[in-house]
Structures are given as C-alpha cells and as structure tokens.
Amino acid sequence: MPNKKREDEKRIMKMKTISRFFLLLIPVLLIPILAFTTVQARTSNSESTATVSTGHFTPTGMTLLSNHTRHGITVTTYKQTFSLTGILTGTFAGTERDVLNHRTGTLTAQNRGLFTGAANGQTGTLIIIAHGSVHNGLLTGRFTVFHGTGNLEDFTGHGTFSIKFGAATGDYTLTWRMGESED
C-alpha cells in the first residue's frame, strides 16, 4: 500500500507540474498576440495626419488681478477672455501674466486657460497654453492645445498667433490632429 500511495503522490505532483507549465505557457503564447494588437492600434492612431487651419480671436474681457514692479521689472496678471472663430469656435477664459523689463523694453506674455466650444465641428473643452512677446507693437507667439474633454478628448495641436496693439482681432494658425497625442 505505501507504494501505491507514493505512486499517487508522484502522479499528483506530475499533474501539478504539467498544470503549472500550461498556466505559465498561456501568457507566453498571448504576448505575441497582444504585441501585434498594440502595434496595430498605434499604427491606426498615428495614421491621423496633421491638418493646418486658421482662425481669428477677439479679446472680449480683461480684469486686472495684480501688478507689481521691482528692480525695473513689472509683472502684471490679468483674467482674460477671448472669442475664437475658425477651426476653434467658442470662448477662452484664462489667466495672462505679462512681464515688462523696463531696462530692455521687452514685454513677454504667458497665458493659460480653458477653451469651450467646437474644434473641427466636435464639441468639448481644451486646455490652451500660450506664450509670446511684443516687437514693434505686434504681439506674436506660440500656443498648444491639449487635454480635451467631450468629443475633443483626442484633439491636440500647436500653432502661432499674432495681434497688433490696438487691433480688435488677431489671427492664429493651428496644426492639429484627432487621435494619438503629438508628444
């Protein structure tokens, strides 16, 4: 009887070993399938080509939040709103920070806020970050749109803008895509 018990134990151990082998084998067999699926998904998303579009923006409101001058540099912060038309149609609300160096006469601006409206006919919100500088009365700069919500979840882009001081409307050009981020 002890031999039979020993044989049963060996058989059970063998079955456990085979079971463990197959349990380990399943993930190994699935890795190529998952890798192929991931490559296919990335290829599909990256096939969305960038599109270049233009539009206009109109400042609609500006509220002074703070203004400080120290050592020849003035930092001014505003709450600012814009109306946008073109590929981006809607409103922008954000905070602008201007830095004026009185010694060199240079003015730089940084703006960050939330766009609410439509892009390429799809609705939602986008974060917009912009930075620029003034030369000869013309504010020019670059901006990025990302972190969309709603139907703009996959909308990303970057562009340039310009507006003359005293002008009612500025222009922008946006290179955008729907799909995987440009990062």
How do the strands and helices of this protein lay out in sequence?
Elements (H helix, E strand, L loop, with lengths): L1 H45 L4 E20 L2 E14 L1 E14 L4 E14 L2 E14 L2 E13 L4 E10 L5 E9 L5
Antiparallel strand pairs: 1-2, 1-8, 2-3, 3-4, 4-5, 5-6, 6-7, 7-8
List keywords for this structure.
183 residues; alpha+beta; AOC barrel-like; 2 domains; 1 helix; elongated
Task: Please provide a written account of the structure.
The protein folds into two domains: 1-47; 51-178, Beta Barrel (AOC barrel-like). An eight-stranded antiparallel barrel has the order 1-2-3-4-5-6-7-8. The protein contains one helix and eight strands. A hairpin with a 5-residue loop joins strand 7 (155-164) and strand 8. It is α+β, with helices and mostly antiparallel strands and 183 residues long. The chain is elongated. Helix content is 25%, strand content 59%. Residues 34-46 have low confidence and may be disordered.
Task: Summarize this structure briefly.
The protein is α+β, with helices and mostly antiparallel strands and 183 residues long.
CATH top level of the largest domain? Mainly Beta
- What is the H/E order? HEEEEEEEE
Structural class, by secondary structure, is alpha+beta
Number of strands: 8
Q: Report the principal-axis shape.
A: elongated
Question: How would a crystallographer describe the biggest sheet?
Answer: 8 strands, antiparallel, barrel
The count of helical stretches stands at 1
State the CATH topology of the largest domain: AOC barrel-like
State the end-to-end CA separation.
Answer: 70 Å
| Integer-rounded radius of gyration | 29 Å
Indicate the proportion of strand residues: over 45%
CATH superfamily of the largest domain: SO1590-like
How many domains?
2
CATH architecture heading of the largest domain: Beta Barrel
Q: What is the typical, i.e. mean, pLDDT?
A: 84
Low-confidence stretches: 34-46
Q: What is the helix content?
A: 10-25%
How do the strands line up in the largest sheet?
1-2-3-4-5-6-7-8
